[in-house]
Design goal:
This protein is mainly α. It has 26 helices and eight strands. The chain has three domains: 188 residues, no CATH class; 165 residues, Rossmann fold (3-Layer(aba) Sandwich); 151 residues. Helices cover 47% and strands 5% of the residues.
Amino acid sequence: MSNNKNMRETRYSPGINSIKEFAEADERLAALDPEKYLKLPYPYDDWVDPPIKELTDEQKNRLEHSLDGLSAVSIPKPETSKDKEELVAKFLAGLKKLFSKENNWTFVQPFTLSMENCMKCQTCSDECPIYISSGKEEIYRPMFRGEILRRIIDKYLKPGGKFFQKLTGSEFELNWETVARLAELSYRCTLCRRCAQACPIGIDNALITREIRVLFSEELGIAPAELHSAGTVKQLKTGSSTGTNPTAMRDIVEFIEEDLKDLYDVDIKLPVDKEGAEILLLHNFGEYLSWPENIMAFAIIFEKAGINWTLSSEMGAYDSVNYGLFYDDVQFARVALDHVAKAKKLGVKKLVVSECGHAHKSLIPIADRILVDDNIIFRESVFPLLEEIVFNGKIKFNPKKNDFPVTLHDPCNIVRAMGIVEPQRRILRKLCPQFIEMEPHGVNNYCCGGGSGFAIFQGKNFPEWRNKISFRMKFKQTLEAFKDNIDPSIKKYVCAPCSNCKGAFRDGLTYYNAFEKCGIIYGGLVELIVNAMEDMEKPFIQWELK
């Protein structure tokens, strides 16, 4: 009995002062100190990060930033006290809806269980790369957001809540400052769910964080522009979150065909709008614009393997992106239903998602919550198909073409969320003689730091935070994987089979000057497959940091 009592007494809980401070502090709650950041291994053991730049005076006057001096969401400061009161009222009304099956039809059960059963044991904190990389900044603990939410629920939604808070001496007043800080805090988590995996009872702090985002988007109209106005809204209007319309998409495909011929002497016509094909291949459209070699590699593999496949130029069917997964159930449903409708119109037998982590999760397991009756269509990951192609003997490979150090990054939404662990590894073991696992790897691997949309956040001072903090653990893992070949004269390849992950690696490796200092580049899985093909006369991989 005494042991149980001691265990309860040592459990962490934000104290009265920290909860009150979250609601009442006039200055920023956290001042990030580069001296406390996670230390990096050689040759970055003497690396010094400059402080994250301050927002401009104009931005400070206009935007909420009192959480930690950053602005990911660009929340405008309300002009009057009445505006603040109305926003707080909308927040409370939206919070109540999160516990309603009619309103939270996606996640009400796991959300409720996670809110009601957290033991505050802090196992999750030890697993969080952002908390650790920041130097264990208190407000970045995975359970901190949930605990703030619980205090609000206890006082404002439960019967007798205000009375009981007075009895316990933990009373605080919900104000706009608390609401605004909670909105920003929900974007200091990549939703990687490493915390949920480690929790002894399965508390999902990432889901809690995601539901906070949903509340702000659907009830208060507060969401990062990169996800909403320049994300799902633009995608539904133009066909792609990049703003690329169907005509431009077809033009880009023609350019890719020309580059295949000019760069690699490969004459392939990419199938577009082929009715009745076995497979509609869905790419994150960022690949077309930033990494067209990925599109080329898929075309080469599928054509040599004799796959009956097609791309689509129909608006809504050429971009697998669905940022609604990260912040808004309504926008998520609109995009997912559009994907399926266009695939069924083309008469394909199944949708296959290429190298994009969040597209895997959004279109396969999460879309199951909305796809019923006539909307049902087979949806699959491309990785088992690629494994089958590599091992069926139809294409001849020469692994010596890939005889350089290669390590594998596991995208959270493919590996941890869906359990697709081995197909990509079996391919790398066969085709890459110097394949090295990161530690930890598989379902225990760390996020790239660009998850939940962070890879596309480019405004104000948030990219600095991403490179210095949320990418930091992944960079440490990368350096440790290549520690025996760290000399920059030895070219090294991080296989990151996810478009958003590649965006995080691009910006992070550039910030750390990793190509010049260590000879490290990044790319997808299919590029390595094509590079190892016996009949490819020219090397497919280009040794430059793109």
